[in-house]
Amino acid sequence: ILNVEQSPQSLHVQEGDSTNFTCSFPSSNFYALHWYRWETAKSPEALFVMTLNGDEKKKGRISATLNTKEGYSYLYIKGSQPEDSATYLCAFMGTYKYIFGTGTRLKVLA
Amino acid sequence: NAGVTQTPKFQVLKTGQSMTLQCAQDMNHNSMYWYRQDPGMGLRLIYYSASEGTTDKGEVPNGYNVSRLNKREFSLRLESAAPSQTSVYFCAWGSGQPQHFGDGTRLSIL
After folding, report:
1. Which of B42, B45, B96 sits opposite A89 (nearest CB)?
2. How many angstroms separate the CA atoms of B50 and A108, rounded?
3. How many Cβ atoms from other residues are within 10 Å of residue A39's Cβ?
4. For chain A, which residues lie within 8 Å of any Cβ of chain B, measuring from their own Cβ?
5. Chain A touched by B39 (CB under 8 Å)
6. Dihedral class, residue A69 (left if φ above 0, else alpha if ψ from -120 to 50, else beta)
7. pLDDT number for residue B1
8. Which CA distances in Å does A58 have to A22, A53, A78, A101, B66?
9. Given B13, B18, B63, B84, which residue has the most CB atoms within 10 angstroms?
């Protein structure tokens, strides 16, 4: 059984704080790791596609890193804003497998 | 939304009733998926279709059937709805890349 785990499950931060969360995935048969942003009452939207060990992607105040050898990815948000409040999902793409994590639910307090 | 039309958006059923959730994508893509989303469980794959005329079971297929009669449409059927099938259902398309999701169907079984 392949597990994709995300931590923490949820967190609250103050506006302006920086934060980060983790996605752990199997280190074998790795093809890609995807990060999604999922706002309440909407559908998930892709943030990053990460394929190479050591990859670092950035979009505005949000960035992500990838370590395929140890099987983890970090998502960072710098200077959190209320509009960053959402669930952040990672998905592991392996050979013939595509598995979502359970998500990290972020609430940014104004 | 992202080239995926999912209907209906909301539905309430009585236990034992049947219904079909419809999904259509206008991106001419081969792979389509049905997920359910439950609190604390992330997205769980019900069924997927790698191409027109083919379907395969995902992680939680029991109680569901699917149909992929053409490339554009992938429907999910509940033959005899049970309260355990109360959930939010998402259709998606894509492979080898992040998936693109419909807006979801919020289904309640009483």
Report:
1. B42
2. 39
3. 13
4. 9, 32, 34, 36, 42-46, 49, 89, 91, 93, 98, 100-103
5. no
6. alpha
7. 57
8. 16, 15, 11, 21, 38
9. B13
| B91: closest chain A residue by CA | A43
Average pLDDT of adjacent 10-residue blocks, chain A of 110 residues: 86 96 92 93 91 94 96 97 96 84 94
pLDDT digits (tens, 9 = 90+) for B20-54: 999 999 888 899 999 999 987 888 999 999 999 99
Reply yes or no on whether the pLDDT at B2 is more than 70: no
Strand partners, B7: B22
C-alpha angle A3-A1-B33 in degrees, rounded to nearest 5: 75
Q: Which of B99, B100, B103 has the highest number of chain A CBs within 10 A, making it the mutation to test binding with A?
A: B99
